[in-house]
Amino acid sequence: MRSLLLTAVLAGLVVALGTDGLAAEAVAQTSPAEQEEAPEVKQSPMARYCRARTRDFLDIFNLKLALSDGASMLMHVRATRFAQIGAGRFAGTKVGFQGASAGIYGEGRLEVGVSVFYWAWIGRKTTKKGITEDALKTNCFFGNVEDIKAEETYKEYYDANRPWHTLGFAFALPFLPGIEAEFNAAEGVDFFLSLFNLRGVRIPPPFYKVEVHGEKIPARGCIRWHGQEEFEQYD
What we know:
By secondary structure, this protein is of the alpha+beta class. The protein has a domain at 52-186. It contains 5 helices and 10 strands. It has helices at 2-29, 32-37, 45-58, 133-138, 185-194, and strands spanning 61-68, 73-79, 84-98, 101-114, 117-125, 155-158, 167-172, 177-183, 209-212, 215-218. It is globular and about 50 Å long. It starts with a helix and ends in a 17-residue tail after the last strand.
């Protein structure tokens, strides 16, 4: 039953991932001579603008659908870091839509607290095949691990990754579908300013990564500057 539910929930994501994979395979099967002869498809400035603004809009929202194990029980409500309350444990499989990135991964988490006195530990694991190219580039879901059943390969992911201004909620119950949703107000500001293609005034700082336990992860509160790649820092 869990497999059927997971298949239904993941259908859209699998199609998207499969499309990317088929495209990459088609390119790989093309000979170098054919690749050189193939004319380069150039997008118009308007097409590039619309694509970048669409990605900026998607950055405002994070959505993660979950199937938990028999011991999961978690509730969390957040209206910025200063107005939040929650407690619980979760272990299971999640489908993550984090902005324009998407992936399927295993997650374990413990969290408890009120307001600024909130503590959380989150471990995640996935494979390169389980996440999109954008997710791999930004390392949104952590851990390019081939064996997702190996618990020692979990990567730590602290509550500090949540910007203070985000709003959202999460809940999980044993063996039932769960959800984690988030609205990023700063990304909303970024989207509005991006409509006018303003440079140098979009806040907070541009997207970049920091090192945690030897792994580069997205920095807290950073923004993705789609269409203005000179501001992005993918170290």
